[in-house]
Amino acid sequence: MKNIRYIFFDCMETIIDLFELPTSSDYAFWSYANSGVEQYWQSFDDYLERYNIAKKLMNDSYDTYQEYELKQRIEVVVNATESIKQDKKEVTNRLYDNYWNTYKSKCFIKEEVRDAVLQLKEKYRLAIVSNFMVMNGIEELLNKNNMRNSFEFIVSSIGFGWRKPDPRIYKYAIDNSGCEAQEILFIGDDYENDYVAPRKSGMNSLWLNKFHEKRDDIDQVHDFYEITQKLLG
């Protein structure tokens, strides 16, 4: 690809992987299990029901693609739980910290990704543009894996306030880069957020099709080895 100066990467399932892909209920379970405050709910099913209600309430109270912090969702659960008479802030913090510590324990960066990023950094400027609901969470994960310095800046949905595929987050990242949109290549595993939407914003894009889904006539790769082959030869 000619005239590319910057590469924007998605983060989760692109740069950082999880040992197992979470289901929709896992996020609730990671906050609840072994939190030390499980006694306030009859069972995990009771907690999960309240968690899903809180999720819907939060989603309905925000504009489409407007981001909020996951901790706010947990706070809604706690405030709506009648058995918690006091120390609501402490219970919220226990659940949230339990979620985040569990999440971090499941994250890792593949060696092929690490090697590819270091190679690409020699030719291109790199940045992260990603949806994430934990403030400074991406930075913490990259620091934990000694990869933060590989990326010149990070735009997260929780930091910016809008999540992909809202056009505002792409424009903000483009403006931060100091480049023209056509000088940027976006790479990520989500077809809509990381391939289609960046192109609508004027960028080039490359879909990381990790699971070999069938889509024709698009620019795609299946792993980071193919990315380096395509961009470095």
How large a portion of the residues is in β-strands, by DSSP E?
5-15%
Q: Please count the helical segments.
A: 10
Beta-strand segment tally:
8
Largest sheet: 6 strands, parallel
Multimer state: single chain
Query: Which CATH-level-2 architecture of the largest domain?
Result: 3-Layer(aba) Sandwich
The amount of helix comes to: 40-55%
CATH class of the largest domain: Alpha Beta
**Quick one: overall form?**
elongated
How does the helix and strand content classify structurally?
alpha/beta
Radius of gyration: 19 Å
| CATH topology (fold) name of the largest domain | Rossmann fold
Mean pLDDT over all positions: 97
Overall number of structural domains: 2
Uncertain regions spanning at least 5 consecutive residues: none
Terminal Cα span: 10 Å
What is the H level of CATH, i.e. the homologous superfamily of the largest domain?
HAD superfamily/HAD-like
**Element string (H = helix, E = strand):** EEHHHHEHEHEHHEHEEH
User: How are the strands of the largest sheet arranged?
Assistant: 5-4-1-6-7-8
InterPro entries: HAD-like_hydrolase, HAD-like_sf, HAD-SF_hydro_IA, HAD_2, HAD_sf, PGP-like_dom2
Protein name: Haloacid dehalogenase-like hydrolase
GO molecular function: metal ion binding; phosphatase activity
Pfam families: HAD_2
